[in-house]
C-alpha cells in the first residue's frame, strides 16, 4: 500500500492526499514535520535529503516533491482523465502546476507567513504589502484564465492542475487582508464544492 509521509496540515501533503482521493488510491499516512516526527532524523533524510514533506513510498520506490508525486500517481493509477496523455493537453496542465509552484507561491509567501503563521522573520509591513501586491497580480492572471475557460484552470474539465491551484486559492481566502473581488476565482472555488475531496483536503479550515 502507498505510504505518505507528512503531516496532513501541510499544503503540499494535502496535494497528495487529494490526488489519492480523486483516484481512489488506498494509502497509509504518517505525520512527519513540525509538531510531529522530525524530518531531520537520519531515517527521514535517507528518504529525502531536503528534510521536507511529503515523501511517498510505493513498494521499493521512494519519491519526494509534491508535484512530481501527484504526476506519478496520476500516471500510475489510470489517471488520464486528470493528467492527459495527449502532449498538448498535458502541457496545459503542467503549465499551471508549475506556475503555482513558482510564480504564485513566491508571491504569497511573505504575506502568508507574516499574517497567518505570524513568523517573527516576516513582520516587515512594507514586505508584507509588497507580497500582497504581487499576490493580487498573480491572482488576477488566474481570474482571467478562469473567466476564459468558464470552468477549470486548464480547460473545461477538472484536472491535476486544479489541485495545487485550489490549495493556493484557499490560502488567498484564508489570509486576513483586503482582497480585490475576483469573480471568476470566487465562482471557481464554489464549483469545486461539488468534489468531496475538495471539502476534505482543501476547504477544511486549514490555510
TrEMBL record:
Coiled-coil residues: none
Give all residue intervals belonging to the GST N-terminal domain: 1-81
PROSITE patterns given in the database record? GST_CTER (PS50405), GST_NTER (PS50404)
Gene3D superfamilies for this protein: 1.20.1050.10, Glutaredoxin
Question: Is Transferase set as a keyword in this record?
Answer: yes
- Keyword set, alphabetical order: Transferase
Q: Where is the GST C-terminal domain?
A: 86-207
- MF terms per GO, please? transferase activity
The record's annotation in InterPro entries points to: Glutathione-S-Trfase_C-like (IPR010987), Glutathione-S-Trfase_C_sf (IPR036282), Glutathione_S-Trfase (IPR040079), Glutathione_S-Trfase_N (IPR004045), Thioredoxin-like_sf (IPR036249)
Q: Could you confirm whether the keyword Chloroplast appears in this record?
A: no
* Family recorded in the similarity comment: Belongs to the GST superfamily.
Protein name per Swiss-Prot or TrEMBL: Glutathione S-transferase
